[in-house]
Amino acid sequence: MADAARGATAAAGPRDTPGETVLAVRDLVKHYPLTQGVVLRKQIGAVRAVDGVSFDLAGGETLGIVGESGCGKSTVAKLLVSLERPTSGQILYRGEDISKLSGRALKAVRRNIQMVFQDPYTSLNPRMTVGDIIGEPFEIHPEVAPKGDRRRKVQELLDVVGLNPEYINRYPHQFSGGQRQRIGIARGLALNPEVIVADEPVSALDVSVQAQVINLMERLQRDFGLSYIFIAHDLSVVRHISDRVGVMYLGKIVELGTDTEIYEHPTHPYTQALLSAVPVPDPELSNRRERIILTGDVPSPADPPSGCRFRTRCFKAEERCALEVPPLAVPAVYRYAEGPAHHDSACFFAEDRPAVTSHPGEPPQH
Fold first, then answer.
1. Residue 251 and residue 309 in contact, taking contact as beta carbons nearer than 8 Å
2. How far apart are CA 225 and CA 21, in angstroms?
3. Contact status, residue 315 vs residue 308, Cβ threshold 8 Å
4. Which of 19, 128, 190, 273 has the fewest CB atoms within 10 Å distance of its CB?
5. Facing residues of 38 across strands?
């Protein structure tokens, strides 16, 4: 990569070494009110989109968040970048609760936490040139790039993400889906952020293009010390890029651990069911592997089950599951055991269930 390209994102000095906590989320809650009536609106309930999510993100780390549609993944992303305000809980960026900030204080923090959106076809304004799209953050934060220097910085950012700097005057419709997502990534890099929240950034792309975009994100992470929150529903993609993985179900994280712990030693029944559905390229291994079929539909987040939210579909559920909410913690059965299963799981009856293969599904090919 050219030295000039590196200059496009070099401003805040050296990054911290991996292991230092950059972002800490504590008991994050987001409820959307349900109302009835036209003139005199009355609240009759709430959609519990996010209901007590906690995790840490270290410098240079990628935390993957995976789960079914409607589990609250994208709502978490919007909360982290302050597109939504939490109902309660904390979002601590370097120890400061940014969920309480507003005005100039919030604007300053937003420089450090940027977002890459899911759909490259609708997240870019079709009436703006690529140069205007990538340079738009400089209009909001003029201290990052003086007006006379913005064109050069935009061209450097295009070079950083693997696009020809001469494309600066083109419009989004002149690019493919993968190229558009590279433009979205360049826009996210413009302000030299420390954290990037990527909300399903490759789900709308072909598999071969997914691999190119993920490889780009990994290279940028190495070059600039970025920390990622990578949200997706594709288990293979999440494993390919993530250091740790959080599995969400109905507004809660039900299992959290390293990629090896989650994929090779899942302990929560929901995680086990998800992994059992991932295609295995080897027919012999596929025939040997146990397939876990979940019964029933996902409950409504407006009326979640009591106790454990997964109990209505769980093959291990007992009476206790309806009466108590299982904490996200290392299961007692493994607390003093030897082996790799020492990770958090929100299940009273969690047990290690080694995968038939250590590589479920085919990750994107390089």
1. yes
2. 13
3. no
4. 19
5. none
Strand order in the sheet with 96-97: 42-58, 21-36, 88-93, 96-97
Distance CA 165, CA 155 (A): 5
Q: Could you give the CA distance from residue 163 to residue 186 in angstroms, rounded to a whole number?
A: 10
Say if residues 253 and 247 touch (Cβ distance below 8 Å). yes
- Confirm if 225 and 59 have CB atoms less than 8 A apart: yes
Q: What type of residue is 167? A: Y
Instruction: Decide if pLDDT at 140 tops 80.
Output: yes
Q: What is the CATH number of domain 3-35+44-242?
A: 3.40.50.300
Q: What is the DSSP letter of 61?
A: -
Domains of the chain: which residue ranges? 3-35+44-242, 255-345
Closest CA to 210 of 172, 241, 174, 253: 241
Q: How far apart are CA 309 and CA 106, in angstroms?
A: 34
3-state percent breakdown (helix, strand, coil) of the chain, nearest 5: 35, 20, 45
| C-beta neighbour count of 218 within 10 angstroms | 15
Least confident of 21-30, 101-110, 282-291, 349-358: 349-358
